[in-house]
Amino acid sequence: MPAVYVCTQHTPDIVAGYFDALDPIFGRVAQCENGRDISALLKGPVCHSGFRRLN
Predict the structure, then answer these.
(1) Closest to 18 measured CA to CA, from 29, 7, 28, 31
(2) How far apart (Å, rounded) are the C-alpha atoms in residues 20 and 18?
(3) Contact at 8 Å (CB) between 41 and 28?
(4) In the predicted structure, residue 54 carries a pLDDT above the cut 70
(5) Phi, psi dihedrals of residue 41, rounded to the nearest 5°
C-alpha cells in the first residue's frame, strides 16, 4: 500500500511540490505496466544478486 508521511513542517506548497515531482515517475510506471519495455529504460545491466547477501 502506498504511503506518504507528512509532518506539521510540511506546508501545502511543499506537499504539492512532492506530488508534482512524482507525476512523471508514476507516469513511467504506468507505461511499463501497460506494456512498455522496461529494459529499454535501463542504463546498465540488471543486478540479480538482490538482497541475498543480507539474508
Answers:
(1) 7
(2) 5
(3) yes
(4) no
(5) -90, -15
18 Cβ contact partners less than 8 Å away, ≥ 6 residues apart: 4
d(CA 40, CA 28) in angstroms, rounded, equals 12
What is the predicted pLDDT for the residue at 8? 78
Write out pLDDT tens, residues 3-53.
777 677 888 898 899 899 999 999 999 999 999 998 888 898 887 776 666
How many Å apart are CA 50 and CA 8, to the nearest integer? 36
CA 7 vs. chain centroid, Å, equals 21
Which cell goes with 9?
A: 513542517
